[in-house]
């Protein structure tokens, strides 16, 4: 059986000192590097949050405050600080992440009108990113998922992986939650387990 490692959004803006820093984010990088050393993955995929400067998930582009919510094209949208703007340092992968064995990169969140937490598709379930096609093309049946943030992009990537038919494992030690809402980390783990995600570590 072929397996892939999916590393979600390990980018400067989600790490220490970044525009949308996830507490403890930097601590997962050595763990992820070790996973890649100690396991033989058939594919290693990075996802990269990659927004145009006018992206509607930014509070600044809606005259809102960070933490408020709006309805964006029919779906609730949390208002984030400006982050992972295409071509900026914040959008780059963290320098300590070992990228030697990476076989594929998926950028998401490029359409200014809709956010894309999942590595598989946008939040409206309108456009696929190509990740499922890539994994199916390479006969991947099992995915292990790590990265940032556990309660947003990691959660939706995990639940979409289950929906797309993959045996899906989350490495608890390879992820951190941003927790902009109380108990969001706990709720996210509960949702993933209910969906059929196996939580490791
Ligand atoms: C993310 C909020 C906004 C994430 C991306 O990577 O979890 N969260 N954009
Ligand atoms: Zn984003």
Automatic annotation (TrEMBL):
Organism of this sequence: Chryseobacterium gilvum
Top EC group: hydrolase
UniProt keyword terms in alphabetical order: Hydrolase, Metal-binding, Pyridine nucleotide biosynthesis
EC assignment: 3.5.1.19
Name of the featured protein: nicotinamidase
Every Isochorismatase-like domain range: 4-200
UniProt cross-references to CDD domains, sorted A to Z: nicotinamidase
Similarity comment: family membership: Belongs to the isochorismatase family.
Lineage per the UniProt record: Bacteria, Pseudomonadati, Bacteroidota, Flavobacteriia, Flavobacteriales
Pathway as given in its UniProt record: Cofactor biosynthesis; nicotinate biosynthesis; nicotinate from nicotinamide: step 1/1
InterPro entries reported in the protein's UniProt record: Isochorismatase-like_dom, Isochorismatase-like_sf, Isochorismatase_Nicotinamidase
UniProt cross-references to Pfam families, sorted A to Z: Isochorismatase (PF00857)
